[in-house]
């Protein structure tokens, strides 16, 4: 199987123009989708409009955008169906609405109307072949972004490395991880932990997603500088406030998966009462048991809080 059947659509995208400027959104999104296939994140051709896709799209888009371009993924995501490259699968009862929707819906409407989206089947099948992925990536960069080709290919290589490290840490068995550049390691750990916790704070439950704006961090339980451990079970998704409080040993998740609070906090002092309200509350855990925090990491946190 080759990409020849999809070649015309890929090289003649309906990109829209402003004067002589061709909008970069659709080809940048295709580059992001290729990276998700290559990293193993897109294994079954079910594409969600989620923060990870937007993050990868933003990396490509930031290289090719001009002053005339504002970052927007929902429009190219929806309109790639007019190029017969992306299919949006309607939820039962929303078939007519999806077919009738010509302009891009809001993100909320997209999630209400569709179950998922997928690349056309022959394209997705071809992208399972590394050589075909390289062909398509090279064709897109040469056709739409010739002057930025080397920068875009560099991002592609970085995304490939991030994806490889993600797969390693998702399958962590306690063995030492191979040496990896810090930015690659940081990105992979962050993506795996945030996905595992569904972008929700394990302390307060905060979950706010606006495109790639996610208001939670991926926190190491035993800090990287101490443990050299990127196992996602040594991680936890926390909002910025609770990440800060945990790193200062004011709060800690314990081996019984409850929150313990420092004795130095006083509920009469503004701002401390919210932390004290966590006392004895359960940790909000990932759905998958394989990502639940390790007992030794929770013990480390509890002991440091007690000794702080």
Determine the number of helices (DSSP H or I, runs of at least 4 residues). Answer: 14
Query: Which outline best applies?
Result: elongated
Helix fraction? Answer: 40-55%
Strand content: 5-15%
Distance between the termini: 62 Å
Instruction: Find the count of extended strands (DSSP E, 2+ residues).
Output: 10
Low-confidence stretches: none
Largest sheet: 2 strands, antiparallel
List the helices and strands and how they pair.
Blueprint: H1 4-11, E1 17-18, E2 21-22, H2 25-39, H3 51-64, H4 74-79, E3 86-90, H5 95-100, H6 107-113, E4 114-119, H7 121-126, H8 130-144, H9 149-170, H10 182-196, E5 209-210, E6 213-214, E7 216-220, H11 224-227, E8 235-239, H12 240-247, E9 251-253, E10 259-261, H13 273-276, H14 295-307
Antiparallel strand pairs: 1-2, 3-4, 5-6, 7-8, 9-10
Helix pairs in contact: 2-3, 2-8, 2-9, 3-9, 9-10
Describe the structure.
This protein is mainly alpha-helical and 308 residues long. The protein folds into 2 domains: 4-167, no CATH class; 197-307, no CATH class. The chain has helices spanning 4-11, 25-39, 51-64, 74-79, 95-100, 107-113, 121-126, 130-144, 149-170, 182-196, 224-227, 240-247, 273-276, 295-307; strands spanning 17-18, 21-22, 86-90, 114-119, 209-210, 213-214, 216-220, 235-239, 251-253, 259-261. The longest helix is centred in the middle third of the chain and has 22 residues, at 149-170. The chain is elongated and about 65 Å long. The termini are far apart.
Summarize the structure.
The protein is mainly alpha-helical and 308 residues long. It has helices at 4-11, 25-39, 51-64, 74-79, 95-100, 107-113, 121-126, 130-144, 149-170, 182-196, 224-227, 240-247, 273-276, 295-307; strands spanning 17-18, 21-22, 86-90, 114-119, 209-210, 213-214, 216-220, 235-239, 251-253, 259-261. The mean pLDDT is 91.
């Amino acid at each position: 199987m080759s990409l020849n059947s999809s070649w015309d659509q890929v090289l003649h995208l309906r990109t829209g123009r402003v004067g002589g400027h061709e909008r970069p959104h659709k080809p940048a999104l295709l580059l992001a989708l290729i990276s998700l296939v290559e990293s193993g994140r897109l294994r079954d051709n079910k594409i969600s409009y989620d923060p990870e896709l937007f993050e990868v799209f933003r990396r490509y888009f930031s290289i090719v955008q001009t002053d005339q371009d504002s970052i927007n993924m929902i429009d190219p995501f929806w309109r790639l169906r007019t190029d017969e490259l992306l299919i949006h699968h309607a939820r039962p009862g929303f078939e007519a609405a999806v077919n009738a929707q010509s302009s891009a819906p809001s993100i909320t409407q997209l999630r209400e109307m569709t179950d998922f989206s997928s690349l056309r089947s022959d394209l997705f099948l071809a992208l399972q072949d590394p050589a075909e992925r390289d062909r398509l990536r090279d064709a897109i960069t040469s056709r739409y972004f010739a002057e930025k080709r080397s920068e875009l290919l560099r991002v592609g290589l970085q995304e490939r490395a991030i994806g490889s490290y993600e797969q390693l840490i998702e399958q962590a068995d306690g063995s030492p991880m191979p040496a990896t550049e810090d930015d690659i390691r940081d990105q992979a750990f962050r993506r795996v932990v945030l996905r595992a916790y569904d972008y929700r704070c394990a302390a307060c439950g905060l979950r706010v997603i606006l495109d790639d704006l996610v208001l939670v961090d991926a926190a190491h339980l035993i800090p990287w500088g101490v443990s050299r451990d990127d196992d996602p079970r040594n991680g936890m998704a926390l909002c910025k406030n609770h990440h800060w409080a945990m790193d200062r040993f004011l709060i800690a998740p314990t081996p019984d998966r409850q929150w313990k609070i420092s004795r130095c906090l006083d509920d009469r002092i503004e701002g401390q009462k919210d932390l004290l309200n966590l006392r004895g509350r359960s940790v909000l855990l990932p759905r998958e048991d394989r990502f639940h925090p390790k007992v030794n990491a929770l013990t480390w946190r509890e002991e440091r809080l007690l000794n702080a």
